[in-house]
Design a protein that fits this description.
This protein is α+β, with helices and mostly antiparallel strands. Helices cover about 35% and strands about 20% of the residues. The chain has two helices and four strands; from the N terminus they run H-E-E-H-E-E. The strands form two sheets. Strands 1-2 form a two-stranded antiparallel sheet. A two-stranded antiparallel ribbon has the order 3-4. The longest helix has 21 residues. It is globular and about 45 Å long. It starts with 7 loop residues before the first helix and ends in a 24-residue tail after the last strand. The mean pLDDT is about 85.
């Protein structure tokens, strides 16, 4: 299966579109940032206020296509502290 190439700008637009589809213009206005985006691995770190987390997460969950091809988001970590995302404490050696 060949993966679709997507830029950081297209990635953010895809998320905004998902928010707009689910919550309308109010959803599209939820502030969030794409802090990092890896085009090769198709992974990103997003920053969102706690008040918008549930809406952002539900929009990610319900987004099912990009450029008429199936797609899915997987949330691997959530933290109120950016530093906590830099490593997995369960895999650290003491």
């Amino acid at each position: 299966m060949q993966t679709q190439s997507i830029s950081a700008e297209e990635f953010k637009y895809l998320i905004i579109s998902g928010l707009k589809d689910l919550y309308g213009e109010v959803g599209a206005a939820i502030p969030f940032d794409v802090l990092t985006f890896d085009q090769t691995a198709l992974s990103a770190i997003l920053r969102v206020f706690n008040s918008g987390l549930v809406k952002l997460w539900s929009a990610l969950t319900l987004t099912g296509s990009y450029a008429n091809k199936p797609c899915a988001f997987r949330v691997t970590q959530v933290s109120p502290f950016l530093l906590a995302l830099s490593g997995n404490s369960r895999e650290m050696e003491v």
